[in-house]
Specification:
Layout (H helix, E strand, L loop, with lengths): L6 H10 L39 E3 L5 E3 L37 E8 L2 E8 L11 E4 L1 H4 L6 E5 L12 E7 L4 E7 L17 E5 L4 E5 L10 E2 L2 E2 L4 E3 L17 H34 L4 H29 L3 E3 L13 H29 L5 H29 L1 H19 L12 H6 L5 H24 L9
Parallel strand pairs: 6-8
Antiparallel strand pairs: 1-2, 3-4, 5-6, 7-8, 9-10, 11-12, 13-14
Helix pairs in contact: 1-6, 1-9, 3-4, 4-6, 5-6, 5-7, 5-9, 6-7, 7-9
Length: about 475
């Protein structure tokens, strides 16, 4: 999609805010690195054997577990910062600016927003890590990692009833999660070979088990709890796939059909969880004494997400050859009444950015889709545009009533999202689909999707936020 093709989306959102129908494009957009592939992601399986003296054991199938506390090499081979760029105001320029961990380094990186610098930390022993974390050696993480402090649900094999405290490394397409967690009898996989093409066997914080996981970073409004997307498991049931789009997919081979079924199951689970996300959003709007138009539109958006989920489950069911739908969604720990800054941060991440990128992405998918699927994708694009407008209008209302605290939180949230997009990987699992089949049924190459998200961030989100918040803050230079 050309940058000019995003102009209607930008103008629609500006009109929704009462700010006119045009705004200047940031100088230099699209960035000079447009079209370059994202940074390669670390692989889940360690690339070399692990010295047994470091407390980690690598099995023949490639899985790794922690037998005992380890002493790691704390060297960080990543290059030092030489070009901080101009798109990551929260970054660093020297090691001295990094104060949030042991062995600090200000390292050079690049990706979908161009070149930037960020703080990076390594560890030698567990004492270098914060509470709830342990030091995992680079060899145990694999894929060119250096030693890192990771979230730890077990300290060593003897802590686990199964006798295995496994090392989990999983990249969902946007960011990487590294965890030490017990293997359990309820696990549905033990190694990557147990999973379908495009998936890895990794720990799932939602279920506290190890399961096959693919790319679950779909742009939109996720249900985030403690920073992780919460979704329901997929089960066999007939009532969530009663939308029957006419799909001319008779010539899809079984391998491609299985990969498409997995992809649409992931999308369906995220769309289903979006219903709960909008329910939380509605309740928080009521707590903030929001005007009735915002509350009503939030309710309508939740109903839209029900239809999006039904369509995605219908597609997953069609490709899987059996009726699929959601299991129970765990919501007991869903926090309400978050502090204003936390609410604004979530609003910008999930709504202003997530829904805006979602609208642009759905339109991009529709451009490449089979004619029998394209109309549904265009309807989703229209729905997501309304949802994005709701988020931007909510931010505008909050600015009117709360001023600078909202403005500062919104700017910080934009830069955090930009950094996450910049670190998006190239080397994550890919599906077994050939390109024509993948694009026809809603699955574009990851590098294409990430480049489009970057372009949307630069040509739609940044100008909107600059117009809404004001252009004077150096954090918004572009």
């Amino acid at each position: 999609m050309r940058p000019t093709a995003l102009a209607p989306l930008r103008d629609t959102l500006l009109v929704a805010l009462g700010l006119g129908s045009c705004t200047p494009r940031p100088a230099g957009a699209p960035p000079a690195d447009a079209g370059q592939p994202p940074v390669a992601a670390p692989q889940a399986i360690p690339a070399q054997s692990i010295p047994t003296t470091r407390g980690y054991v690598q099995e023949e199938d490639g899985t790794v577990h922690r037998a005992s506390a380890a002493t790691c090499v704390a060297d960080n081979p990543r290059p030092a910062c030489v070009d901080p760029g101009d798109r990551n105001a929260g970054g660093c320029t020297a090691d001295a600016a990094c104060r949030d961990g042991a062995n600090p380094r200000c390292i050079q990186d690049s990706g979908q927003i161009g070149r930037f610098c960020q703080c990076d930390y390594s560890c030698a022993t567990d004492s270098d890590c914060k509470t709830g974390q342990l030091c995992v050696c680079g060899e145990a993480l694999g894929g060119g990692h250096h030693s890192m402090c990771v979230t730890a649900q077990c300290q060593q094999d003897s802590d686990c009833p199964s006798g295995t405290c496994g090392v989990s490394v999983y990249h969902n397409g946007c960011s990487e999660t590294r965890t030490l967690a017990c293997r359990t009898q309820a696990d549905t996989c033990t190694q990557n070979a147990d999973c379908s093409e495009g998936q890895v066997c990794a720990h799932d914080a939602n279920t506290s088990t190890w399961s096959c996981q693919g790319i679950t970073c779909a742009i939109g409004r996720p249900l985030l709890i403690d920073g992780a997307a919460r979704t329901a498991t997929c089960v066999t049931r007939p009532d969530w796939h009663d939308i029957h789009p006419h799909l001319d997919c008779r010539d899809i081979d079984p391998t491609s059909a299985r990969a498409l079924a997995v992809h649409w199951q992931d999308i369906a689970a995220l769309e289903h969880a979006s219903v709960a996300s909008f329910a939380r959003f509605t309740l928080e709007l009521l707590t903030l004494a929001a005007p009735p138009d915002l509350v009503a539109d939030a309710q309508r958006a939740a109903l839209d997400e029900v239809e999006h989920a039904r369509l995605a489950y219908a597609l997953a069911s069609r490709f899987a050859g059996r009726p699929l739908g959601p299991g129970p969604l765990r919501t007991a720990d869903l926090l309400l009444n978050r502090p204003l800054a936390a609410f604004v941060t979530a609003l910008v991440h999930e709504g202003c950015i997530g829904e805006t990128l979602g609208a642009a992405e759905a339109e991009l998918l529709a451009e490449h889709a089979d004619p029998t699927l394209a109309p549904q994708l265009r309807q989703i694009a229209a729905d997501e545009t309304r949802h994005a407008a709701l988020a931007w209008r909510t931010l505008q209302w909050l600015l009117t009533h709360h001023g600078d605290p909202v403005r500062h939180a919104a700017r910080a949230a934009l830069e955090t999202s930009a950094t996450e997009l910049s670190a998006a990987p190239e080397g994550h699992p890919t599906t077994a689909l050939t390109a024509p089949i993948a694009t026809a049924w809603g699955l574009l190459p990851h590098a294409t999707v990430m480049a489009h998200r970057r372009l949307t961030l630069d040509t739609v989100v940044r100008p909107l936020l600059t117009t809404l918040l004001g252009p004077t803050d150096p954090d918004l230079r572009s």
